[in-house]
């Protein structure tokens, strides 16, 4: 999987600095490729082969947005990446995307800048990929029914990621803006070839679901334990600050909880932090990090009845892995021209 020579050497004949647009990324990469490389990256994290500082965040009080810096090096990929990402929830009301992002890629072996990559779609793709990895290890193997809560840009790659690893036949979609859910259903039913039913409440969406993906920016739970069937798996990927949450405390208490990285979850994940502040949950109750699961240090799902939750706040590790897959495939396609 890994590149045998410094990646910058292979770009000297292309350009001094490569630029890849959103459209380029979408044309080059598919979800299956990103799932594969993200899983490898989490194995590397478990084995101590990743340099991964916590992200830094600057908030705009005036406009209600966050700007984040997310650096990372994965030893086996040998690429340094730093993503600058802005998350502005109020953009929904302006008819604008809530997330914008750009990634700088540098050859970690010699410090030579490789490229500048528009990363809005790449961010959604790698987030869908991590849900695919988590679903592979934590959901029941014959799961066919998926619920999507929050039908914005991220929802599309959540559906792609889960559908890549499970034989999904029915999707229930809910969004506080019905038109957004309807647009998601029209687009993704065509792309995935499955029935997608738009429902009026989150409860309707999840009651029959075997897998649930929450992709909202909510400050209050959008899921309640009383709505969930036994054996359900939840990918909670929307809330990313200590005061945001998508899952109620009762669900966290009754579930096997896996996080992308404990340090990040305990710093940023309101879904974990709030139950701890309530005095009802504690750090030692977190079952595992995803890297432990994919490296087989701990088992994933162990029964068809247990409820599992994967909580992700998003790591620069995922961006690094996706950029590695992108550049590797770009070079391969370039060599065939």
Q: What is the tally of beta strands?
A: 15
Rg over C-alpha atoms, rounded to the nearest angstrom:
19 Å
Order of helices and strands: EHHEEEEEEHEHEHEHEEHEHHEHEH
What gross morphology would you assign?
Answer: globular
Biggest beta sheet attributes: 8 strands, parallel
Helix fraction, binned, reads 25-40%
CATH superfamily heading of the largest domain: NAD(P)-binding Rossmann-like Domain
Brief summary:
The protein is an alpha/beta fold. 36% of the residues lie in helices and 23% in strands.
Description:
- The chain is of the alpha/beta class.
- 36% of the residues lie in helices and 23% in strands.
- The chain is built from 11 helices and 15 strands.
- An 8-stranded parallel β-sheet has the order 10-9-8-11-12-15-13-14.
- Helix 2 (31-46) packs across helix 11.
- The radius of gyration is 19 Å and the shape is globular.
- The model has no long low-confidence stretch (mean pLDDT 93).
Strand and helix map with partners:
Blueprint: E1 18-20, H1 22-28, H2 31-46, E2 50-51, E3 56-60, E4 65-74, E5 79-87, E6 99-107, E7 113-118, H3 120-138, E8 145-149, H4 153-165, E9 170-174, H5 178-192, E10 195-198, H6 202-206, E11 211-214, E12 233-236, H7 249-254, E13 255-259, H8 262-268, H9 270-277, E14 288-289, H10 290-294, E15 307-311, H11 316-335
Parallel strand pairs: 1-7, 8-9, 8-11, 9-10, 11-12, 12-15, 13-14, 13-15
Antiparallel strand pairs: 2-4, 3-4, 4-5, 5-6, 6-7
